[in-house]
Amino acid sequence: MNPELIAVVMFGLLLLGLFMGHPLAFVLGGTAVLTTFIAGKPMVLGIVINRIFGDVLDNFTLIAIPLFVLMARFLSDSGVTDRMFESLRLLMSNIRGGLALAVVFISILLAATTGIIGASITVMGVMALRPMLQYGYAQTLTTGVIAASGCLGILIPPSIMLILMASYSPLSVGELFAGSMVPGVLLGLSYAVYVYLVSVFRPDLAPAVEPDEKISRGALMRMLAFEAVPPLVLILGILGSLLAGIATATEASAIGAFLALLIVIMRGKFHWSTFYSAMLETARTSAMILFIVVGATAFTGVFNITGGLRATQEIIRSLDMAPWLLITMMMVIVFILGAFLDWTGIVLLSFPIFLPIVQEMEISMLWFVVLMAVVLQTSFLTPPFGYALFYLRAIAPKEVRTGQIIRGVLPFIALIVLMCLLVAAIPSLVTWLPARLYTQG
């Protein structure tokens, strides 16, 4: 079987398995196994198994994933986020759109302390969804801002997605964290600007709300500052140690998990039952991610060894496009894949194809990977398989229809596309901070 046909067969089987509703990890691994027999090369499986052990199960950097998941769960159990949101809600309640702005700002802080999408959306949804609806906020704005803001955790470091991207690219975790910081914060601020403009021009969608409690602004500021200390210490411990070169990504994640546990203990929230459930949830989430990584490694291993990878790269090279047009085509492919695949699968399937071509074009690898990370924000929001939509649907009241949730995220998808264009037009948004941190002399 020629390599071009192998590529068609593998992606055909992949799409078939996904549309039949099977889990991504099993579809990827099953496609790899079936292809070796269809191509008459079952011996390839031995090489692939060795690659799985070498690239995945023996990868020290990937240990950071369960540690960051555990840190996120500890922070959620500490109750810090609830108190911060309550303080910010009272502080901004009499401003039009104040509750929605509070969601954005707390989500930015959550993103910098967790990096777990499901945790951020669930926490913000439980805290903010019903109050916003009760105070007269439109369903579309309410669901849109919670879903989109909750997804900032894959772009603002520490991010599990960026750790995985670094593991399968020539870049270090520190470089990716530094490169994504400015675009991530700018994207969050663009959400805040959008919410403010909507509240000004469409006040019926985001009304001003009289605070329930009469507390002085000074007291609220002191309360907010006090509640912000634990997350800021956590951010400093993780990003400070990593970006300063004191710790590796794995060591920084261990520091973060330890600090988050200390926060839980100091706030009197530690119980053995919650500790057990935190460990159990960490094991489940980490296993889900690593199963997908194993399946994708098997898929790309078979795809490479049987010649499908080389054939696909040659087809792309033969298009003879200008570099900017080729990058645009790659980002469009990632955007479309985001509607059907999990970000883990997209990264592991596209990197082996795209990164060698990007290196040949002498384009900044850091800029390309961060640009792709920005595009992947949409993968959580685009139907039919946007995970943020499912997370929010699970906690939303029955009167909130799924169609309203989808309509709500559309403006934020447009903002993500605008941020992609901005990052593409101004690469220094990505490269400036890493150059400052990592340039010697």
Automatic annotation (TrEMBL):
Q: Which Pfam families match?
A: DctM
Q: What is this protein called?
A: TRAP transporter large permease protein
Positions of transmembrane segments: 31-49, 56-76, 96-129, 141-164, 176-198, 219-239, 245-266, 287-309, 321-354, 366-392, 412-435
Q: Does the keyword DNA repair apply?
A: no
Keyword Cell inner membrane among record annotations: yes
Q: Describe the family membership recorded for this protein in Swiss-Prot or TrEMBL.
A: Belongs to the TRAP transporter large permease family.
Q: How does it sit in the membrane?
A: Multi-pass membrane protein
Principal subcellular localisation of the protein: membrane
The entry's function note states: Part of the tripartite ATP-independent periplasmic (TRAP) transport system.
- Domain TRAP C4-dicarboxylate transport system permease DctM subunit: where? 11-428
Quaternary structure and interacting proteins, as annotated:
The complex comprises the extracytoplasmic solute receptor protein and the two transmembrane proteins.
What subcellular locations does the record give?
Cell inner membrane
- Keywords attached to this entry: Cell inner membrane, Cell membrane, Membrane, Transmembrane, Transmembrane helix, Transport
One GO molecular-function entry: transmembrane transporter activity
Q: Domain of life here?
A: Bacteria
Which terms in the GO cellular component ontology are assigned?
Answer: plasma membrane
